[in-house]
Recover the amino acids of this structure.
């Protein structure tokens, strides 16, 4: 180990962690936050402990770079995203190691973050110019009023992201903001800062101006308010409880925000489903990313006629999963991220079992594999009064419920304050669409766990009810980072009675014209 700025040099593979953190604005770089390796619980590295004053400095630096970036043609900004896309695919092994070490997830689930960043980069590289171009709108006086809609960048977009998808949530929401001409001030979770910093370095290698994206590191409690105060728009992903506070603070600043929040997501197996496919889908739905996934499934509704066969096969498939801390693709599931998440998982399972729940699979921590490992767990006989019944666990834990009809399953799935992502399994896609349309969730996957809707980046993604406001992806995901401006140019006659025309007569003429134009469609 060699010394760097008076500290031991930390590396993950070929990635120098101190080189990554050197781009963080910090007036006191010697005040550090230790980052743990989730697989082992030992020290991975450290980052500066930023202050609100550091946030203000970072915002000033980002704003200084933004006007020149916004002045570039959108085609140049989009070309940078495609170069970034290529670099992420080329150098994926670097960040896969980082993600696994920071978060603890299995490599197959870390690779989902590579796919996401590539999809989002490619999508907005190819669509941004069309979304952002001036658009003709129908004028007040048809041919006499020429109206166009313009989209200007907001300026500085704040992004506060959680630890469960450190690359995806740390940078993917920033990509449409950047290509729209904004600067970005981002704060990754203090447990998982390195994947975001790695992505910012690659963006700069791809041609993004240095300083356009500023990263601050530290706790949300210490820096969140300062980020909101400095931003022109806020993108937040996290818990519903914190989201309510963030929304209130954004309201005080009179800035818009978009938030993906908590979920207690449901999976419905319909009585015509292929049980084998539904079991495989349920394993992915419940235990991907060690269950630390906002859109993973924590409730399942199974027809009584299929109950015995489904639960037997699902329990067997769950028990057969391979848990490992390996930095390769051999593991089916990895570790929880921290002692806090392990404690939550343990508390929810023990509370349910103590109140009469039955464990079909799992139910125990696995310290032999690593300090934060917990078995993928299936519960039945869960009822109101148990913490797990309505509260989000955010771990590899699912509760199964027997239902007698499709209508009962839909009603129980909708009986929640949350509505983020649901899943429906059926042999009849048309039936699946009909059921999906009755579910109160922002995304519903038919015959898939979560990836079909999430990966379809041309379509909006977000939550209903207490699961969030606003949307990411598609048109919504880029235009939210812009200010809409309407420019109306009048030709020949103004709107209103011309000089010399009696106002009463003008009113009668316009009334007749409006009646004649009643069926006239708008224009695009």
């Amino acid at each position: 180990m060699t010394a760097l700025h008076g500290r031991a040099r930390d590396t993950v593979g070929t990635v120098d962690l101190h080189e990554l953190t050197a781009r963080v604005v910090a007036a006191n770089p010697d005040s550090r936050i230790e980052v743990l390796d989730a697989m082992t619980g030992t020290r991975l590295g450290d980052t500066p402990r930023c202050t609100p004053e550091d946030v203000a400095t970072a915002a000033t630096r980002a704003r200084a770079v933004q006007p020149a970036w916004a002045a570039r043609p959108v085609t140049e900004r989009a070309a940078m995203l495609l170069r970034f896309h290529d670099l992420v695919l080329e150098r994926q092994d670097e960040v896969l190691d980082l993600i696994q070490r920071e978060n603890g997830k299995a490599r197959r689930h870390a690779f989902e973050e590579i796919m996401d960043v590539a999809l989002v980069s490619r999508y907005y590289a190819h669509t941004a110019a069309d979304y952002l171009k001036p658009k003709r709108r129908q004028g007040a006086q048809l041919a006499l009023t020429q109206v166009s809609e313009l989209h200007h960048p907001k300026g500085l977009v704040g992004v506060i992201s959680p630890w469960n998808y450190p690359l995806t949530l740390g940078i993917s929401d920033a990509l449409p903001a950047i290509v729209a001409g904004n600067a970005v001030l981002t704060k990754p979770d203090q447990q998982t800062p390195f994947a975001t910093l790695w992505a910012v370095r690659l963006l700069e290698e791809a041609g993004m101006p240095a300083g356009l994206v500023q990263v601050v590191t530290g706790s949300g409690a210490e820096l969140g308010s300062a980020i909101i105060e400095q931003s022109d728009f806020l993108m937040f992903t996290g818990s519903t409880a914190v989201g309510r506070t963030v929304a209130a603070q954004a309201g005080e600043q009179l800035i818009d925000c978009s938030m993906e929040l908590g979920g207690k997501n449901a999976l419905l197996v319909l009585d015509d489903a292929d049980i084998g496919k539904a079991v495989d889908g349920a394993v992915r739905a419940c235990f991907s990313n060690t269950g630390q996934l906002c859109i993973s499934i924590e409730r399942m509704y199974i027809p009584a006629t299929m109950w015995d066969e489904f639960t037997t096969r699902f329990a067997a498939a769950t028990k057969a999963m391979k848990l490992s801390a390996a930095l390769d693709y051999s593991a089916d599931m990895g570790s929880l991220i921290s002692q806090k998440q392990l404690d939550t998982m343990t508390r929810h399972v023990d509370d349910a079992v103590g109140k009469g729940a039955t464990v079909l699979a799992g139910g125990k921590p696995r310290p032999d594999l690593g300090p934060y490992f917990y078995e993928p767990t299936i519960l039945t006989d869960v009822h109101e009064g148990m913490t797990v019944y309505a509260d989000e666990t955010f771990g590899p834990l699912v509760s199964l419920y027997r239902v007698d009809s499709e209508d009962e399953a839909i009603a129980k799935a909708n009986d929640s304050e949350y509505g983020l992502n649901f899943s429906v399994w059926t042999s009849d896609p048309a039936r699946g669409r009909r059921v999906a349309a009755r579910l109160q969730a922002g995304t519903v996957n038919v015959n898939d766990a979560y990836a079909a809707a999430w990966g379809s980046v041309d379509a909006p993604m977000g939550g209903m009810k207490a699961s969030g406001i606003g949307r990411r992806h598609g048109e919504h995901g880029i235009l939210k980072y812009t200010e809409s401006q309407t420019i109306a140019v009048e030709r020949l006659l103004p709107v209103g009675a011309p000089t010399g025309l009696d106002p009463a007569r003008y009113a009668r003429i316009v009334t007749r014209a409006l009646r004649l134009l009643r069926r006239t469609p708008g224009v695009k």
Summary: Confidence is low (pLDDT under 50) at residues 1-7. The longest helix spans residues 107-132. The CA atoms of residues 229 and 252 lie 9 Å apart.
